Amino acid sequence: MALFILRRFGVMLLTALCLTFIVFSLTNLDPNLEKLAKTQGNARMTDTEVESWLTRNGYRDPLINRYGQWLGVLPGWTLQTPDGETTGRCIDSKTPAESAPRYCGVLQGDFGYSTVFRDEVSSIIKTRLGLTGILMFWVMVVMVPSALIIGVLAGMREGSKLDRGLSTFSIATTATPEYVSGVLFITIFASSAVGLKWFKGSAASAMKGVTWENFTLPVLTMALYGMGYIARMTRASMAEVMTSQYIRTARLKGLSFRAIVIKHALRNALIAPFTVIMLQFPWLLTGVVIVETLFNYKGFGWTLVQGASNNDIELLLSCSVVAVFVVLITQLISDIGYVYLNPRIRVA
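The chain above was modelled as a monomer; its predicted structure follows.
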């Protein structure tokens, strides 16, 4: 197992490097850099002035060098201005050239400076990720138990009216995108047009304090979309287990149907859904983009939209690092958990 985890960490590191380099290359294309120069300088800058601004700020170094500087494995660039002042990646108003570190990248905890929020990216990501973590927690609390109950009930009575009804509900929730269900929820339960003002159509106040009124609709919007997929996987797994030979043997021994389901079928039926549940975390982290924008909840997804729409390169790169890290870690946990849940699997 230790060798397996070590190998997986090696693959994760290589995958992370490849993905972050792709994102870095795309965000540092010439049109994006030109837009950044005009945003930070003057919208009416000439091509010569844009080129001069990019050179002064280190954007004309080779791409691989800038990627290494961003990671923190290469020394940050420095430039001597005509008036004798030294500027560079690791040099700012708080850190003069004499005391500036040579390396200032992701590995050193320096994620750069946001041109939109005018603040350190690490501080922004920490705050916004915490808000999204609260949303994700409540979504998982609602989504996972509900989906498992629906899937188990449907799989226990395969082909029955209960199975068909629950399966139809699962398919309907999966087929309805968040932006559709979210708008419907706001129209029905928060809009004065219908009259049911049970909840707030905005979750902005939830950033200061989560209440039933301001947090129910965004949680339900996300939970319903992911619930159907988990329920369908649980139903298929449960239906397969209920036809297994050891279940027939338990019935022949005279065990009650409830005992058969709880003591014998349930654990084996939950092996496949466990992987699906773990894969919901990366989806939640990226799926919150729509929900947080729709309900004006300023978490990680909302921040990602702001960074993309305003060409905030450093913020976009940091968001990509977080997303890649979450995906790889959840996949590793999923693989390890799968081995422990299913004793028949052995790591070679």
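The chain has a mean pLDDT of 82.
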